[in-house]
DNA sequence: CTGACTTTGTCCG
DNA sequence: CTGGCGGACAAAGTCAG
């Protein structure tokens, strides 16, 4: 493994990553070598290229490991695997379903076609949609030069100097897409859109009905007048000729095509699947002046491959009998199958597998070399199996926003951008009324190296302030990790996942018991060490799954990774141990929340603001009646102490009206002594919803009463579920060391060993710092800020999608 | 060992 | 000069129990 003898194959490796990907339609028979030479010349030496090279070598090492593994496989293992594969094959064969008729429809060069339709001058020119930095799609003329989606415009220009690059017009594509989808819905009301320009349909039911239709229902008229009217709604300038500029010279119309009296076309369609799909494509073209291609097959996997077969403006039907499917699959290159990309293709290629028939022949080997999910997937492909019923995607699992820009190194800018991203994300979250518990920061440095750092909170969050409170800490940790050098970023992103709504709808009620049991388990199992200083058990600060908060371990990481992300020296502030960072971060969260909340936002009017978060079980209680809420906490507490819970459905029902955090503070502290619950400021601050208001105005001395050794304190921290305790506990504890705490913000030694007091100091200190950091920044103005100011040199990309 | 969680990588359009 | 965005999922590592 340590041989790293990839240099011999690095040249070839380079090609496989960087070279033209010509397996798609419209790229046949062009001068690959010449094109690749130009791509190389424009790429060589760039940071992007260097990074691609690095990734390529990682793939090569993966392949080497795989080959090594292969060499150690015994005949016995192989025959055992063979038996397993055969068993599975026959099971799958028994379940093969050829009864459905699945269609994959794909608009031809969608964005480019829309732009050409609206500007016929472009028709006979090579053109692409996108920017100098990135192209979304290209027309077929441009593809002859090797210009294709996912290629930067400046390289495309070198391949094809006359290339016209049209900026993306997303709203327009969305509008056209909506028209197309109206047609889809007539054939399958449950059709599955994959993007603006493609969809899967199950037309089995439609065909059933269609068989009984009278012939008059199968005739479509397209008088030019009606076409004009339709488009008149869409845009101001309309070509009066009616039918579109022709995108593709060869539009084979195999159905009868007549001229009616009004000069429109008349088409008659039959009742079989092919006729139905031809009719659908005809109607799409009538409606939008754009052409589509389609594949008809017994499952989604095959339909997708088929739709590519006669592209553009064509269709292909694979008949629904087993032998036809087997024959079709035999010579199919594995790369054509959706889900097998560059890397998998290369790995399989190393084993001599390029076609699906190879896949079938080598299944036993694949079962030994790949994970279960992978080889199961391969087996399905080799048998020509795929999904036979299309389903709309369930609830979304994450939501994110990210932005690329010119090099950014200034802290102030980085925090400002981070905040902006959080704000954008908060807006998007609000649109779908979502809240998530996990916040992930994504960074890409100028060398194209990507890093993600996540932190999971006990409560779902959604507002700008909440997101920023977390994201900013994650960012700060990364900055601290490389300090005194700056982070030289080219991309930043924020993602939210672990949505509360998804959990809420599911088996939540039954899980409350489990939830509390879990807490109980935590408490009891860790109670044996509860006499130790709490800080040893604090979760890791964000972004430190690798134990890099410990200086010695940072060194170790440097040795292992050795790239630009790791600081050349230490990078850990004096006195900023994992423990310090933790308290710092805990405080920072609450601090930001408080700051932001106080500075700008009155409480938002979102749905979820009508609920309160229980400080014991961390669940939202959908009431704003404090008496109800307190009763919940009472029951929750007795549940905790008695090892059971008394939650009922009725308690969780949504209550009306609104309340303030301050009221929560007053009543909850009045009725429940914090010490009785074991609540502590850290606990409360960890919870963005409960923490802010409860903490506000709290007497430190009261809170101090919550003993640090109380298991609940630790559980509250652990219940963040995110950063886990440090791998290597700090050997010496400050609590036994006398007054020697150093503030991670001001770097001054504090004359106390009381954590609560110390944290309060850090709070104040951070307050100053955050205000200083952000105070100078103008309030984020979305309209002006999307065009980045001075130092954001690069372009911002938004709403960019590929279409092929 | 298993489950929960984080990080990275692959793939898609 | 200029090499994207957003989503899903899987692998692999780590830790706690």
Name the descriptors.
804 residues; Alpha-Beta Plaits; alpha+beta; globular; five-stranded mixed beta sheet; DNA-binding; disordered N terminus
Folded structure, characterized:
The chain is α+β, with helices and mostly antiparallel strands and 804 residues long. Among the domains are: 1-72; 102-320, Alpha-Beta Plaits, CATH 3.30.70.270. It is 47% helix and 12% strand. It has a 5-stranded mixed beta sheet with strand order 5-6-1-10-11. It has a 4-stranded antiparallel beta sheet with strand order 12-15-13-14. β10 (292-297), α12 and β11 form a beta-alpha-beta unit. The longest helix has 25 residues, at 47-71. The chain is globular, with a radius of gyration of 31 Å. It binds a DNA duplex (13 and 17 nucleotides) through α3, α7, α14, β12 and β14. One of its GO terms (molecular function) is damaged DNA binding.
Quick overview of this protein structure:
This protein is α+β, with helices and mostly antiparallel strands. α8 runs antiparallel to α11, α18 packs antiparallel against α19 and α25 (661-671) packs across α28. It comes from Salmo trutta (Brown trout).
């Amino acid at each position: 493994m340590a041989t790293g003898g990839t240099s011999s194959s690095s040249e070839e490796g380079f090609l496989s990553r960087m070279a033209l990907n010509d397996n798609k339609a419209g790229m046949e028979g062009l001068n690959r070598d010449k094109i690749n030479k130009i791509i190389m010349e424009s790429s060589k030496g760039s940071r992007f290229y260097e990074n691609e090279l690095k990734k390529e070598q990682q793939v090569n090492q993966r392949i080497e490991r795989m080959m090594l593994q292969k060499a150690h496989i015994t005949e016995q293992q192989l025959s055992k695997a063979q038996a397993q594969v055969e068993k599975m094959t026959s099971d799958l064969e028994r379940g093969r379903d050829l009864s459905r008729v699945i269609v994959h429809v794909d608009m031809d060069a969608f964005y480019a076609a829309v732009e050409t339709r609206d500007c016929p001058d472009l028709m006979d020119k090579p053109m692409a949609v996108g920017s100098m930095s990135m192209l979304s799609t290209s027309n077929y003329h441009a593809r002859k030069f090797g210009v294709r989606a996912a290629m930067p415009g400046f390289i495309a220009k070198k391949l094809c100097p006359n290339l016209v690059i049209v900026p993306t017009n997303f709203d327009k594509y969305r509008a056209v897409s909506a028209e197309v989808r109206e047609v889809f819905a007539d054939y399958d009301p449950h059709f599955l859109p994959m993007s603006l320009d493609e969809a899967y349909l199950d037309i089995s039911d439609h065909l059933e009905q269609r068989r009984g239709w009278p012939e008059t229902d199968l005739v479509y008229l397209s008088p030019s007048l009606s076409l004009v009217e339709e488009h008149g709604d869409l845009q101001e300038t309309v070509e009066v000729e009616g039918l579109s500029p022709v995108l593709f010279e060869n539009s084979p119309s195999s159905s009868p095509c007549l001229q009616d009296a009004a000069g429109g076309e008349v088409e008659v369609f039959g009742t079989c699947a092919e006729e139905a799909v031809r009719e659908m494509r005809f109607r799409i073209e009538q409606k939008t002046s754009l052409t589509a291609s389609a594949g008809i097959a017994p499952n989604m996997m095959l339909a997708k491959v088929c739709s590519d077969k006669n592209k553009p403006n064509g269709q292909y039907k694979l008949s629904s009998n087993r032998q036809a499917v087997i024959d079709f699959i035999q010579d199919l290159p594995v790369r054509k199958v959706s889900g097998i990309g560059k890397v998998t293709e290369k790995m399989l290629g190393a084993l001599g597998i390029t076609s699906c028939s190879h896949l079938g022949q080598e299944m036993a080997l694949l079962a030994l070399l790949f994970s279960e999910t992978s080889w199961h997937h391969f087996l399905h492909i080799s048998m020509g199996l795929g999904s036979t019923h299309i389903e709309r995607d369930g609830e979304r699992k994450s939501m994110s926003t990210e932005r690329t820009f010119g090099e950014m190194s200034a802290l102030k800018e980085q925090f400002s951008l981070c905040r902006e991203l959080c704000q954008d994300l908060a807006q998007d979250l609000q649109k779908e009324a979502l809240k998530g518990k996990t916040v992930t920061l994504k960074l890409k440095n100028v060398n194209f190296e990507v890093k993600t750092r996540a932190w999971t909170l006990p409560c779902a969050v959604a507002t700008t302030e909440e997101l920023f409170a977390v994201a900013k800490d994650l960012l700060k940790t990364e900055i601290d990790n490389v300090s005194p050098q700056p982070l030289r970023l080219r991309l930043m992103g924020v993602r939210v996942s672990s949505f509360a709504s998804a959990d809420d709808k599911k088996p939540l009620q039954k899980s409350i018991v489990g939830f509390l049991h879990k807490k109980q388990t935590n408490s009891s199992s860790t109670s044996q060490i509860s006499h130790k200083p709490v800080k040893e058990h604090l979760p890791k600060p964000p972004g430190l799954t690798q134990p890099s908060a410990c200086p010695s371990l940072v060194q170790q990481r440097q040795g292992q990774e050795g790239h630009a992300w790791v600081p050349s020296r230490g990078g850990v502030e004096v006195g900023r141990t994992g423990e310090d960072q933790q308290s710092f971060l805990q405080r920072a969260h609450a601090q930001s929340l408080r700051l932001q909340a106080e500075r700008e936002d009155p409480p938002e009017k979102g749905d979820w603001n009508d609920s309160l978060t229980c400080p014991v079980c961390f669940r939202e209680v959908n009431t704003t009646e404090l008496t109800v809420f307190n009763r919940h906490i009472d029951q929750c507490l007795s549940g905790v102490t008695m090892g059971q819970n008394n939650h009922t459905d009725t308690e969780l029902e949504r209550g009306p009206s609104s309340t303030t955090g301050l009221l929560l503070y007053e009543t909850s502290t009045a009725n429940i002594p914090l010490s009785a619950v074991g609540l502590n400021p850290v606990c409360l601050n960890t919870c963005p919803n409960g923490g802010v208001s409860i903490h506000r105005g709290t007497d430190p001395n009261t809170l101090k009463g919550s003993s640090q050794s109380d298991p609940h304190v630790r559980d509250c921290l652990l219940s963040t579920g995110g950063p886990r305790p440090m791998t290597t506990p700090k050997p010496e504890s400050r609590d036994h060391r006398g007054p020697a705490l150093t503030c991670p913000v001001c770097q001054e030694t504090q004359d106390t060993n009381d954590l609560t007091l110390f944290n309060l100091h850090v709070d104040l200190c951070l307050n100053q710092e955050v205000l200083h950091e952000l105070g100078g920044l103008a309030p984020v103005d979305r309209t002006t800020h999307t065009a980045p100011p001075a130092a954001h040199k690069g372009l911002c990309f938004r709403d960019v999608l590929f279409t092929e």
